[in-house]
């Protein structure tokens, strides 16, 4: 069964949603490097503790797992490990669901300029991340915002600045996992028919809608969300 935590890793390039890291016996197959960066020391500490608790010893041995605490826009230790094959950019955003849960003062601080300010920062982060990738590397941009400014709006500006060196990709390579349903629309009817043939609308754990560039998972039709995903390939620099 696919879990919400596995969804981004599968989108960015895992071979199977049922893949488990502790299912690998050969150390050679487990080679590679995972670099985790967060501007918050508190969040990074929690992530570090979680990964070390659940990953097998060989996955954290030596230099395979690295942590960096830095503001992406200002640079940091994460840069010295570049170029990367894949980058997951979970960008700071309006976090609408968390905002409503907090309520009170958090809602009072929100203004119409909040999404715009986030969008400007998100674009900077995308431009930096794209330069840290190898040619043909994969960049997955995600937010938990409902604002178009922070989602497809940011990707619009990013693609224009990339001048043909970046292309958007389908959310998954090949057949979609059975737990994910792509909601139908005239713009992607062929893709929807192919991917969801014989699939009951109520059987999927995740229901995802195709937007202009990316995909949205909204809580009114899915068990999770809001979440926005845009998967891209860097063709050059």
UniProtKB/TrEMBL annotation:
For this UniProt record, give its keywords in alphabetical order, as a comma-separated list. Answer: Methyltransferase, Mitochondrion, RNA-binding, rRNA processing, S-adenosyl-L-methionine, Transferase, Transit peptide
So where's the catalytic machinery, residue-wise?
144
Q: Which PROSITE patterns match?
A: SAM_MT_RSMB_NOP
Q: Which Pfam families match?
A: Methyltr_RsmB-F (PF01189)
Gene3D superfamilies annotated for this entry? Answer: Vaccinia Virus protein VP39 (3.40.50.150)
| Catalysed transformations (reactions) | a cytidine in rRNA + S-adenosyl-L-methionine = a 5-methylcytidine in rRNA + S-adenosyl-L-homocysteine + H(+)
* Residue segments, region Disordered: 180-200
This entry's Gene Ontology molecular function terms read: RNA binding; RNA methyltransferase activity
| Cellular component, GO annotation | mitochondrial large ribosomal subunit
Q: Where in the cell is it found?
A: Mitochondrion
Instruction: Write out the residues that bind S-adenosyl-L-methionine.
Output: 38, 71, 90
**Record's SUPFAM superfamilies?**
S-adenosyl-L-methionine-dependent methyltransferases
- Coarse class of the primary localization is mitochondrion
- GO process annotations (BP): rRNA methylation
What are the SAM-dependent MTase RsmB/NOP-type domain coordinates in residue numbering?
Answer: 1-214
Q: Which InterPro entries match?
A: MeTrfase_RsmB-F_NOP2_cat, MeTrfase_RsmB-F_NOP2_dom, RCMT, SAM-dependent_MTases_sf
**To which protein family does this belong?**
Belongs to the class I-like SAM-binding methyltransferase superfamily. RsmB/NOP family.
Q: Which PANTHER family match?
A: 5-METHYLCYTOSINE RRNA METHYLTRANSFERASE NSUN4, NCL1 YEAST -RELATED NOL1/NOP2/FMU SUN DOMAIN-CONTAINING
What protein name does the entry list?
Answer: NOL1/NOP2/Sun domain family member 4
Tell me which species this is from.
Eimeria tenella
Q: Which lineage?
A: Eukaryota, Sar, Alveolata, Apicomplexa, Conoidasida
């Amino acid at each position: 069964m696919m879990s919400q935590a596995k969804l981004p890793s599968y989108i960015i390039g895992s071979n199977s949603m049922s893949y488990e890291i502790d299912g690998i016996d050969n150390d050679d197959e487990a080679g590679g490097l995972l670099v985790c960066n967060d501007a918050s020391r508190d969040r990074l500490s929690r992530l570090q503790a979680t990964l070390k608790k659940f990953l097998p010893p060989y996955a954290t041995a030596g230099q395979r797992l690295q942590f960096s605490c830095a503001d992406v826009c200002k640079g940091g230790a994460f840069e010295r490990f570049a170029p990367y094959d894949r980058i997951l950019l979970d960008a700071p955003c309006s976090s609408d669901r968390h905002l409503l849960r907090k309520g009170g003062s958090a809602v009072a601080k929100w203004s119409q300029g909040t999404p715009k300010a986030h969008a400007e920062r998100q674009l900077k982060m995308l431009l930096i991340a794209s330069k840290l990738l190898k040619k043909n590397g994969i960049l997955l941009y995600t937010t938990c915002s409902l604002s178009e400014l922070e989602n497809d709006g940011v990707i619009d500006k990013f693609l224009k600045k990339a001048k043909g060196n970046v292309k958007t990709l389908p959310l998954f390579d090949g057949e979609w996992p059975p737990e994910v349903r792509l909601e139908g629309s005239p713009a992607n009817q062929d893709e929807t028919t192919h991917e969801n043939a014989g699939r009951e609308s109520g059987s999927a754990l995740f229901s995802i809608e195709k937007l202009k560039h990316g995909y949205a998972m909204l809580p009114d039709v899915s068990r999770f969300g809001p979440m926005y995903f845009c998967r891209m390939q860097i063709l050059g620099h």
